[in-house]
Amino acid sequence: MAQTTRLPAPADPQPPQAARRPHRTTHHGQTLEDDYAWLKDPAYPEVTDPDVLAYLEAENRYFEAVMAPHAPLVETLYEEMKGRLKEDDAAVPWRDGAWMYQWRFEVGAQYLRWYRWPADGDAGDAQCILDEVALSEGNAFFRLGALAVSPDGRRAAYACDFNGDERFTVQVRDLDTDTLHDLTIEGTVGRLVWDAAGDGFFYVEVTENWRPYRVRYHRLGDDPAADRTVYEEKDGAFFVGIDRTRSRRFLVITAGDHVTQEARVLRLDAPDGEPVLVAPRRRGHEYYVDHGEGRFFIRTNDRDADFRIVAAPEDHPQEVHWRELVPAEPGLYITGHAVFKRFLVLEERVDGLDQIRIRFHGEDGESHRIAFDEEAYAAELGRNAEYDVDTIRFVYESMVTPDSIVDYSVDTRTRQVRKVRAIPSGYDPALYETRRLHARARDGAMVPVSLVYRKDRYNADAPRLHLTGYGAYGLGTPPFFSPARLSLLDRGFAVAIAHIRGGDELGRAWYLAGKLNRRTNTFNDFEDAARALIKAGWARDGRISISGGSAGGTLIGAAVNQAPDLWRAAVLHVPFVDVLNTMLDAELPLTPIEWPEWGNPIDDARAFATIRAYSPYDQIRAQAYPPMLVTAGISDPRVTYWEPAKWTAKLRALKADDNAVLLKTNMDAGHGGKSGRYERLRESAEEYAFILTAFAPEASG
Description:
- It contains twelve helices and 38 strands.
- It is globular and about 65 Å long.
- The chain has 701 residues and is α+β, with helices and mostly antiparallel strands.
- This is Oligopeptidase B.
């Protein structure tokens, strides 16, 4: 079926046309032709090539020109979204040792300020311990990656990213004198752990190409160049991370990829000691370590893909000493665990729905789950800094219920709602309804779909649907609340999340069914969910807009190649669309760690053929496509800027339609887009304006 023009490209200005420069490579006897390979700057991670920059800037000018007539709609949407934002927002205070802590926004501020006051004192006497507003001054991008106060409460170590490349700079502030230490450590990831005495802290260094690979310990007053290497990972396919056990007694050093995890532990009161290996790595074995009351509590998939919980003495954490505490059960997926002094908290998923279970440490292992009432919802542990408590904090939300901070008494089983997201411009949840649906995929699998609509605005006779998905890395998409989404719902859209294979909504088997040589299940599930929603009356052909980001951009790229007539418009945020070329480039930091997820086409001819058959960039062909908005970040280390740029260039050269294709590259940001809260809202407003314009004149109101 020929596709009609849905958002025509303007006659003037003309869209940029990237030069075609023949480039050929051969793998497994197959030749790849890539006329736009030149868009990868040879100097990356620096981007200085004048031709590359000229093309990106031309695309940005074209984006601005095409969107200029829709500026009033963008502004309307922005003001709506801003009206739902509590501008003087503040966190529910939390206790950590002798202090209460809280972050606060001030009206008009893009970033947070962090405060504390004595636990037996008054919030009115709060001290500002970190000012993101001041730190961000003069920078187009700012992100706080870590803020860690020393155990004695005297110092705060923090890590900041100033350009979106996720290389964080560490500094230390003396909280007694409000002065900075003469210390700067660059090229780290955003995680810091103090030793028990507060004499120094641990951090993780990244390579030039952004692979976290080395744990170092800095003792205050020493030269950072002489910092001790605590652990260095030699395998280029493994990333390193650090954490602290909830008991605060151990540093946990992890090394892993997407299917294998290895951990070492080090006593925080002996920072000069050697880390102890818990269990040596073996492919496919994932385990996660916490500690409390003389034992390590370990979540492991050694016997079941959906995990069990074992315990081991703190002096003998090795696998031979593991003893089962919580067995694996059919239909039960253990997604996380946290150890407190009197009990263990398990985050679980049953039938695709989140559960939180409290298990006391007694011999009988008495346990209970917190009850939730809605048909579809999301629930997870919140900020729980203290170890010896009888109340835990969790976060609850659904597609119609704003996210709520709840304190739960594990003894009385009562809850206290501490905060519900405020919507200053007004929000009545009774006007909206959420549904939990199931779509039959072409191979018979039943794909869950979470859907929401506004009951008095949705028109079943002329339905409009916005569909999203992700489906990768075993990262499920919860049915979350979104204030921005109301701008679509209030204009009569239904919005749905397809919980497709590749995510872990239905357990690890659901994830495994959407990776490697089964990757196309993810794309088929998305199309089949859309067709099921059409059959159920929630949409019609050509009246569905779709969006996804990063690996979700792979999904959207595959969807527009596979079934272009279904979609009214598509938004691809920092999309991973050049899958084959990226997986063939072992020099990129994320490539080796990604092979267990996508396959290694360098060594495996079957993986090469499989990826080539679905890689969105490689599957662009001369057919009609829906209007598309594509975004990129010049500093993005996860999905490099040239992937969306190459996708846009090739698509524009081959497609057989007059629909607009827009590329917007953030020249001062990375994977997450712009950093300030108002700037993020404006980007959301641009996305929604693009979608509404594709449905115009019926939906642009």
